[in-house]
Amino acid sequence: MSQLRLWAFCAVGCLGMMGCGRADLAREIGPASEPVLASLQAMGGIEAWRNPSSIHAQAVLTVYDDDGQFYSNLYHLDIDLDGRRMSVEADLPSGELTASIRLDGRSRLNVSGQKMDQALRDRLLRALEMTLHLAGGPGNFLYSPETARSAKSDRIAGKPLVRVSVGGDNSRALAYYFDSVTRLLEYVTSGADRPGGEGSIAAYTYQMMEGGRAFPQRILVTRIGEHVLLGDKPVLEVTFQDVRF
Question: Where residue 53 falls among pLDDT bands split at 50, 70, 90?
Answer without folding.
Answer: confident
